[in-house]
What does this fold into?
Amino acid sequence: MKKLICMMAILTNAMAMTNIVVDTKISANFDISFAENKTTGYECYLSEYNQNLITPIKSSATSNSKVIGAPKQTTWSFRATATALPQITTLTIACLRPWETKEAPKEQLYRIMLK
It folds into this structure.
C-alpha cells in the first residue's frame, strides 16, 4: 500500500493532477471547481472521462464580483456510477480559444478515487 501511495504522489506531481477521493458510502455525487474567465475567450469543456465510472450532472458558474470581466468560479457536478469499488479514473477538462486552432488546449487533470 505504501508503494502505491508513493507512486501516485510521483505521478501526480509529474502530470500536475489534482486528486479527489469520493466516498460513495457518504455520497455518490462530487464537484470539481476551478476559476474561469470567459471574457478572455477561453471556453472550458469536459474532454475525457470514463463513462462507465462517472457521469456528468451539470456545470454552473458563479461570481462574487460585480466587476465586468472578473473571473468566475465554475463548478462541474458528477455522479459516481461505478458498480465495483474501489476504482481509480482520470478526468480532463480542456480550456481553449476556439479561433486558436494551432494552440493546444490548456488541460486540467483530475485523478478520481472512488471507494
Q: What stands out?
A: Helices lie at 2-15. The chain has one domain: 19-114. Residues 34 and 84 are 29 Å apart (CA to CA). The beta strands are 17-22, 29-36, 43-48, 54-62, 72-80, 87-96, 106-114.
